[in-house]
Amino acid sequence: MKKGGLQGYVIRRLLYAILIAWGVATCTFILLRVGPISPADKYLANMSARTADPSQVVAAVEARYGLDKPLYVQYFDWLSNLARGDWGWSFSTSMPVMELIQKHWIYSFQLILLSMLFSAILGILIGIYSAVKPYTKTDYLATFFSFIGISVPNFWLGIMLILVFSVQLGWFKTYYDTGLTLFSLANLKALVLPVITLGTGAMAGYTRYVRSAMLENLRKEFVRTARAKGLPERVVIGKHVFRNAILPIITIIMFDLSGVVFGGAYLTEIIFGIPGLGRISFNAVFASDYPVVITITLIGALIVLLTNLATDIVYTRLDPRIRYD
Amino acid sequence: MDNTILKVKDLKVHFFTRHGVVKAVDGDSFDMRRGESLCLVGESGCGKTTVALSVLRLLDSPPGKIMGGEILYGGDDLLKCPDDRLRQIRGNKIAMIFQDPQSSLNPVFTVGDQIAEQLKLHLKLGHREAMEKSLRLMEQVGIPRAAERINDYPHQFSGGMRQRVMIAAALSCNPEILIADEPTTALDTTVKAQIMDIFRDLKREKNMSILFITHDMGTVAGFADRIVVMYGGRIVETGSALDIFDHPTHPYTRGLLNCLPSVSAIRDRLTPIPGAIPSLINPPKGCVFDPRCECRLPLCATVRPEEVVASGDHTVACHQCAPSVVGEGHKPS
């Protein structure tokens, strides 16, 4: 492949990404700001006990954050600030949005990373096993549990896990302890239930996808060629079949990273009290703290766009038949 | 001196399908001699590929199952030897080439990797040595600019070149027997001729034993030393190329040869064999060819014909040729 072809493609995709991110930011801004509640009202609600004249406070707050200006002026101010790297001010926590995110992103990151590893590794292993021994008891058992895993909503699973393993058995704490050192053993233990809560649905899905992709490729003629060469079954399955079967799975896993996991991480963080981006975004929505909501939505959109691009680039490495130019 | 390198005895292979049991190979026996090119000929679905795959136990199971028989190679019965032993033979002593080189090559590995794979496995070569040997093999089978192309992927090659890659991979460990399952069927006529040249060279220069499977009598002519004709899962005639082409004895073999266009013989039109191949789920009770045979006898419908010697090496499974029958009906010419 010509190097320039891929570079040009990546640059084009990045330009599209900027355009889409702008669209996402604009839509979120409009949806949040045309609503009936002014951020100042919420601010006021918190302060009301100490003020005599509410309308004065509202006016002061609105003037302080530029909320008294026409909406389009606010929009352009916000965009130009964004372009200069100023993500805005969080009303509810009284700190710059960027600082808030810097403090909390790591909690989401570790949760999502560990659940991805959990679901991908287990899902792929069980899927391969099911495909190699199809229509056996183990396969049927795997099928049964993966359908349960796909069907169970993760918030329900999370609550049940807490009830059984934390409340009844007392193996884990019922909430996430933020005092633990990140990536320490104690911290990993604290993340066991959240990771299972977040990862089970995806893991069950991968089991099914891997099984069918493996079965499909096991029927291909190159498998017969590999066997005719005298290769042991471990190499035939692990190299020749798996390397072909994994291609569609990678797309699904990357897509999940941006979509399902991001969505599920919100609920999981709330159930287990993990102070990640999902939780602060959830709080910000109820506080009408729109700069935080917009920023986290925007970050989510950028992650979706960038993982999709990364998937496409990884694909050119894994599947020599795919070319972008 | 026994010159037999591979002996197939009473091989029975059935396919278990939803519609019933298909008797794809129904008690076939033949020998393959060292250094000869033995051609297995017959229509699609007559069981020739099944025989070839059975030699290395490569049938998909389910639905295929080897029901009985022996395939003797060296001191081993390939149908019963342990998997480890079989893997030492596959690709190393007996190599195989398939019909469609496009789907038989793994699309995500370079051709060099795929040729080198067996060298690393059987000859325990390191990566560099294996790649060097692969390059020489690619040159040997006539792939131009092999050094540049060794890191290309199968989809970057034409059909003929892909089949050359398959042949290079099959030859890599210098096998004693090469099984080629319709290696030219998926190729254009001109490319087919080039690939056949490679096989002729192998036969002439390396004195390799080749089991060549095809439905095309034209490809067989000029290449085969001996020919095995199959019909409906059974071997109907076996003989030297000369026997088969000059004295075809089984009515089916004669029918096959009548389907060939000929330059020398003046013929208005080709003569097709009437009818279609029978279902192998419920094959005819007697001779499988009976329903289509032009010179059938009353006993053909009920009694399965035994193999009889027509002359020397030439055997036929036909009641017309059986000693008890000869003289009763009209003897085939």
What's this model, at a glance?
With 325 residues, chain A is mainly alpha-helical. Helix content of chain A is 77%, strand content 1%. Chain A is built from 14 helices and two strands, in the order ααααββαααααααααα.
Description:
The complex is a heterodimer of chains A (325) and B (333). Chain A has 325 residues and is mostly helical. Chain A has a domain at 97-286: MetI-like fold, CATH 1.10.3720. Chain A is 77% helix and 1% strand. Chain A has 14 helices and 2 strands. Chain A has a two-stranded antiparallel sheet with strand order 1-2. In chain A, strand 1 and strand 2 (95-96) form a beta hairpin. Chain A is globular, with a radius of gyration of 24 Å. Chain B has 333 residues and is an alpha/beta fold. Helices cover 29% and strands 24% of the residues of chain B. In chain B, helix 5 (127-140) packs across helix 7. The longest helix of chain B is centred in the middle third of the chain and has 18 residues, at 189-206. Chain B starts with a strand and ends in a 17-residue tail after the last strand. The chains are: A mainly alpha (325), B alpha/beta (333). The A-B interface holds A 219-222, 224-232, 240, 243-244, 247, 318-321 and B 53, 56, 58, 60, 87-92, 95-96, 98, 100, 103-110, 117-118, 121-122, 153, 155, 166, 169.
Keywords:
heterodimer, A: 325 residues, mainly alpha, MetI-like fold, two-stranded antiparallel sheet, 14 helices, B: alpha/beta, 8-stranded mixed sheet, 4-stranded antiparallel sheet, disordered C terminus
Number of strands of chain A: 2
Which sheet architecture does the biggest sheet of chain A show? 2 strands, antiparallel
User: Portion of residues in helices of chain B?
Assistant: 25-40%
Number of helices of chain B: 11
- N-C termini distance of chain A: 9 Å
- Give the overall form of chain B: globular
Oligomeric form of this entry?
A: heterodimer
Query: Within the largest sheet of chain B, what's the order of strands?
Result: 6-7-8-3-9-10-12-11
Count the E strands of chain B.
Answer: 12
